[in-house]
Amino acid sequence: CAVHAPPPRKGQPPVLVDADEEPSRGAAALPQLRPAFRKDGTGTVTAGNASSVNDGAAALVLMSAELAQRRGQRVLGNIVAFADAEQEPLDFPTTPTLAVQKLLAGAGMRVEDIDLFEINEAFSVVHLANQKLLGLDDAKVNVNGGAVALGHPIGCSGARILVTLLHALKNRGKRFGVAAICNGGGGASAMLVENPDAAPAS
Predict the structure, then answer these.
(1) CA distance 33 to 28
(2) Distance between CA atoms of 156 and 29, rounded to whole angstroms?
(3) What is the spatial distance between Cα 140 and Cα 114, in angstroms, rounded to a whole number?
(4) Which of 28, 31, 148, 172 has the most CB atoms around it within 10 Å of its CB?
């Protein structure tokens, strides 16, 4: 679908964005891209499997169920539990696994109890490594694409993956989802959310 973006300069007309330019760049050039970190030829992270630089902003409203009910607010999701984990900074790509394991243990749940996962991927390897370590079904992870496809706006990626997850749960009629994100300092955060429309009536 076409989207009108703000004008690039004052006095100019809005820009009509009606095509995603990313797929048109083609896969043929991917093997020729230079590694971003290791310069000795052994690196595997390149511009082709890393998220692009994106602008973004987000604002989320957090309130108690009682207050939402009193105000007649539509609840998009319920926070069930959250957890943080950390390890050596060099190992940051796999820290989401530690956060998810801690989260699920605290909630008394198993990986099999979760319908969908949203794992941020500054680099594709983050998603792939954590999916493998946690033993996740590919059909349950980043079902609308990850940050390599959708973008990784620093500072609002946590909100982006959480809202993406909540909408994916709602659109599929699923109940539980886990969002996880790492940071460059060796830490990671994970959150377990519930789609209120799929929860059993109390």
Answers:
(1) 10
(2) 30
(3) 9
(4) 148
